[in-house]
Structures are given as C-alpha cells and as structure tokens.
TrEMBL record:
Organism: Streptomyces longisporoflavus
Keyword presence, Magnesium: no
DNA-binding region: 28-47
Protein's UniProt name: TetR/AcrR family transcriptional regulator
UniProt domain HTH tetR-type: residue ranges: 5-65
InterPro entries, alphabetized: Homeodomain-like_sf, HTH_TetR, MT1864/Rv1816-like_C, Tet_transcr_reg_TetR-rel_C_sf
Keyword Transcription on entry: yes
Highest taxon of source: Bacteria
Key words of the record: DNA-binding, Transcription, Transcription regulation
Amino acid sequence: MVRAGLTAERLARAGAELADEVGFEQVTVSALARRFDVKVASLYSHLKNSQDLKTRIALLSLEELADRCATALAGRAGKDALTAFADVYRDYAREYPGRYAAAQLRLDPETAAASAGVRHAQMTRAILRGYDLTEPDQTHAVRMLGSVFHGYVSLEMAGGFSHSEPDSQETWARVLDALDALLRNWPAA
C-alpha cells in the first residue's frame, strides 16, 4: 500500500533538505524513512534505492541552481553576467550545502543529457560569447570557470579562508576581476 502524500518528488525534496542538514553522503532511503516515520519498504514503491534517491536530489539541485542562474543572468552581459553567475553558485552552496554537493554527483550520460546540467553549460557559453572566444578556447574557459568557482566555494565552505585576512568576500571579488581580465585577454594558442 502506498502511503498517502508520498511521491518520488516529495521524497527528493525531503532528501534535499536532509542533505542540507546532515550532508549529502549521509542521505539514504533508511534515513528518509525515519524522517517520515515510515518503514523503509514503503519508500521502495517510489524509489529504487539510495542511489536513485541521490540522483533525484542531484537533478532537483541542478534544476534549482539553473533557475537561479537564469534569473540572475537576465539582461546582463560581460563581467556583470560573469559575476552574477558566479555569485549564484557561491550563494547556493552557502545556503544549501547538501544540495550543492548533490549537484556535483556524477550522472550516467543519458541522465546527464536530460538534466539541467545542460542549461548550466549553455548559460556558461552564453556568458563567454561576450568575450569572443571560439572553440576550443570556449570549452577550455567553461572548464576553467567551473573549476575556479567550485574550488573556491569548496575551500571557503571547508573553512579554508576563515583564519586570515583579508575577508574571503574581498578575495572573491578579486578572483572575479582576474577571471574577467583573463577572458578579455585570452591567450592565443
């Protein structure tokens, strides 16, 4: 018998909340069952297993993040767009650390191709059009931006910048200035 009110979507949302509370790696079907005060078996009519739950949380997180990025990018170009995009990633990671971790989950190629991850790549490439990069430089730049944003946010969230001056916000602004300058003067191959 299916418990009234439980759906795969509701379970994914509850799993995302749980991830923000306890960490993405700690999210399991068993932990979710405890949250709803139901037996684990009752959730298997909605979820295949813990990996299915984690994939659903990842897809939800990618969608939320893409929606926030799209809103932030509307009407912006150049450095303004780059900064808005980067700030959305940083703010999302700070507000929803478990969901941010979920958004990094490696998805199988078919699931990834149908996910909001495609929108993230499209938005990044749209920002880069303002810098007149052609292939393969555009792909190099997409990878660089993702690496810098994720690296900075991960170090900051782990407390890596909390023990020294200047404030990490000041460094973040300098990093974005440097990225903008690099993109405007992208080195020739």
